[in-house]
Amino acid sequence: MEITNKKKIAIFASGNGSNALSILRYFHSHSRVQVLAIISNNENAGVLNIAKSYQIPTYIIPRKEFEAPSFKLTDFCSTKFDLIVLAGFLVLIPATLIAQYPNKILNIHPSLLPRFGGAGMYGKHVHQAVIRAAEQESGMTIHLVNEDFDKGKILLQKSCKIEATDTPERLSEKVLLLEHQYYAPLIESFLLAEG
């Protein structure tokens, strides 16, 4: 399965995996990039079924393992990845992993950071907070990961207008469309800019 001249991606996901699916579709027959692993902290995550349908190896790493001071990704899977992509991964990335992959971990967040980011701000919680705050627009942010939730260098933001009739569920659909449209192409350009 591994083709050494291709850039290698690991996707970290905790849930159903709609962004992971979008990324897998985008890179499925790519000549220079391939997804080589799906890693989750949740043994019941829907993303694991998506990985199976694409014949991508999966690894379950319990949260306590991630948070261990001695954590090394290579203890679980032997591949050295060119990029780690977070796609709805609900565990804070530990400093040990950031040190192993400096500026090589991307995340996508369903708001226009720095607004509505931080611990506990994920999924529906973000959209509910945005609607409660009577914001005029929301969107998505793709950023590098550092040791604080949602505070890494911003690489791309795209926005959508919030209508007076929008519910958190409707806003979630709008933002997810942006995520699916822009995440995989940004991953591609980020990886291939390195040569």
Based on the model shown, name its key terms.
7-stranded mixed beta sheet; 7 strands; about 200 residues; globular; alpha/beta; Rossmann fold; about 30% helix
Description:
- It is a single chain.
- The chain is an alpha/beta fold and 195 residues long.
- The chain has one domain: Rossmann fold.
- Helices cover 32% and strands 22% of the residues.
- Strands 3-2-1-4-5-6-7 form a seven-stranded mixed β-sheet, covered by helices on one side.
- It is globular, with a radius of gyration of 16 Å.
- The model has no long low-confidence stretch (mean pLDDT 94).
Rg: 16 Å
Q: Classify the fold: give the CATH topology.
A: Rossmann fold
Query: What count of helical segments does DSSP give?
Result: 6
Structural class based on helices, strands and sheet pairing: alpha/beta
Topology:
Layout: E1 7-12, H1 18-27, E2 33-40, H2 47-53, E3 58-60, H3 63-66, E4 83-86, H4 95-100, E5 105-109, H5 123-132, E6 137-144, E7 154-161, H6 168-192
Parallel strand pairs: 1-2, 1-4, 2-3, 4-5
Antiparallel strand pairs: 5-6, 6-7
Helix pairs in contact: 1-6, 5-6
Summed up:
The chain is an alpha/beta fold and 195 residues long. It has six helices and seven strands, in the order βαβαβαβαβαββα.
